[in-house]
Each structure stands twice: as C-alpha cells, then as structure tokens.
Amino acid sequence: xxxxxxxxxxxxxxxxxxxxxxxxxxxxxxxxxxxxxxxxxxxxxxxxxxxxxxxxxxxxxxxxxxxxxxxxxxxxxxxxxxxxxxxxxxxxxxxxxxxxxxxxxxxxxxxxxxxxxxxxxxxxxxxxxxxxxxxxxxxxxxxxxxxxxxxxxxxxxxxxxxxxxxxxxxxxxxxxxxxxxxxxxxxxxxxxxxxxxxxxxxxxxxxxxxxxxxxxxxxxxxxxxxxxxxxxxxxxxxxxxxxxxxxxxxxxxxxxxxxxxxxxxxxxxxxxxxxxxxxxxxxxxxxxxxxxxxxxxxxxxxxxxxxxxxxxxxx
Length: 315
Ligand code: NDP
Hints:
Layout: E1 3-8, H1 12-23, E2 29-31, E3 49-50, E4 60-61, H2 62-75, E5 79-81, E6 85-89, E7 95-99, E8 104-112, E9 116-118, H3 124-129, E10 134-135, H4 138-141, E11 151-155, H5 159-168, E12 174-178, H6 188-195, E13 200-203, E14 206-212, E15 219-224, E16 230-234, E17 237-240, E18 244-246, E19 277-279, H7 291-313
Parallel strand pairs: 1-2, 1-8, 2-5, 8-19, 10-17, 11-12, 11-17, 12-13
Antiparallel strand pairs: 3-4, 6-7, 7-8, 9-18, 14-15, 15-16
Helix pairs in contact: 1-2, 1-7, 5-6
NADPH dihydro-nicotinamide-adenine-dinucleotide phosphate binds next to helix 5.
C-alpha cells in the first residue's frame, strides 16, 4: 500500500506540514535528511538564538525550537526516517521515493520541503570560526549581544547582502559590505539604499582570504581582486550572503524550477508542476527565507495535499 503522504525535509516547513497532516490523520512519513541538505532540522540548527519566531518572547535556541516542532509532529502521529532521499520518480503514480539505503517507498501525495543550503566560503578558517562571529543569516543572528555597537561585515553583492547590511546597521556601529567586483548585483533600489547609508561602507573588489581569531572572530584578511594587495579589517562579526543553493538535486529535473533553481509553485499555492506534488519552505522561496514563512507554507502544503486527495478520490 502506498503511503498517503510523504514529506521530504525536517526544517520548519516539513515539520509544520507534518503537524497539520498528522492532525488530519494522513499519517505522514517524513524524511529527515542529513547529508545532502545539511542536518535534520535544517538551517535553524546552525543558528544561535531565534528572536523572531512568534511565541518566544525571550528568544529560543534554533535547535531547541526544531526539537520542539519535531516532537509536536511525532506526538500527533508523524513517522520519521533519518535518511536522505536520493531519487524520486514523479512520472509514475503512486510516486516513488528512494532513500539512501536503496529502499523504495510509494506515496499518493508528496510534500517537498528540502530547504536550501546557504553557500559558504570554502576556507579552513571559516569552518573553524563558524558560529563564533561568522553567520550566514543577519536576520537570525545580527541582534545578538556580541555584535552590538561593533564593526561588522557582510560578504556579497546581491539583494541579500544589501538587505543584511542595512539590517545590521540597527545593531553594529558600522557595517562594511565586502564585494568581489566594482558593481553590485542587487536591484537598483537596494543599491541606492546601501550606497547612501551613512553607516555602510562598501569595500569594492575585495575577497576574504582568511577569517582571523582563536575562539572568536577578530578580523578579516582581505585581498584586492585587482591589485592583489592584502589588508586587515578588524570586525566582530562577518555575515556571508553569497547566495543559496536550493536542495533539488534528487528531483533530477522532474519538476519545473525557476532560473535560480527553486521549485516553481502556482501563485498563492504550494502546488508544483506535477499534480499531487507540493513544495514548501526555502526550496521554493528565494524571497523571504524565514522560519516562520517556511512554517506557514508547510501548513499550506499539508492543507492542499489533503484537499487534493479528497478531490481525487475521497481518500
Ligand atoms: P545572488 O546570487 O543574487 O548574489 C550572491 C552575491 O554573492 C553576488 O553578488 C556574488 O557576486 C556574491 N558571491 C557569490 N559567490 C561568491 C564567492 N565565492 N565569493 C564572494 N562573493 C560571492 O544571491 P542573493 O541571496 O543575494 O539573492 C538571491 C535571489 O533572491 C536574487 O534573485 C535576489 O534578487 C532575491 N532576493 C530578493 C530580495 C527582495 O526582493 N527583498 C531579498 C533577497 C534576495 P557576483 O555579483 O560577483 O556574482
């Protein structure tokens, strides 16, 4: 017998869809991947205190929040498998889902909530100081006391980098935007905002050669991409905003994707290009990318999956 609903992904989107679906007695089976797209629980697992998820006036640690949401899903009847999904076959029905162990599962509806992975600079010093002054999310971590009234840096030149730099001006004494070229990729309106912001200084044609510090980031070694000159920049925090890669490799081109590789969904819906397949969270959202918006779209996906099954056959 096929599963009624399989959910791929254990971040806020996947687990929220699991809470809704299990309360609707769909008995969902949820895959918590741990290799391709990061660790179970998603990007919040590598975040410190989450201060913007409603319901926690004093903030909550990202991993604690995810553990709570996971337990809530399990309490309502979600079954979980801690394995990556390596392949899906959406050309057949029921859909086929193959996991890393080689087992093939079948399902009537599928929710893909496999998230996106923030791109990171491939430096040893970055790995060493990750979470100790280096973050990939200014909205999540920027307000932490360690960054207050300190000089901070954002790396990247796209809309995210610009947005993060402006966001950080609320907390830091000064924000450097470090970009590898002499022109921003960000939209014109965002460019204007950052170029005229009194607390932001753009360092053009610079890349990070090294993150410096023992147990906490102290400075950056920057290389000029034109002259090759090296400069030291003392800062208390560095925020990488060099783009995200949506985790869609296992789809093998079976769903329509946007130019940036995100799963395309119908307007105001989580319905993908294949009937019965829904997508929620960061794998389909290049714009908001917040835990709460991911959770919201997970809720939508579960409701849409249930309605789709009812309309199809009264299952
Ligand atoms: P983008 O891919 O648009 O930008 C990534 C930036 O990082 C680029 O400036 C790129 O440089 C730089 N970069 C990439 N790799 C490296 C590296 N190895 N070293 C140094 N710099 C690097 O990603 P974003 O996350 O900014 O945006 C993704 C999408 O989401 C965009 O379409 C954007 O418009 C959208 N978005 C919209 C928002 C809004 O509407 N409010 C907010 C945020 C994002 P280079 O320019 O040289 O390639």
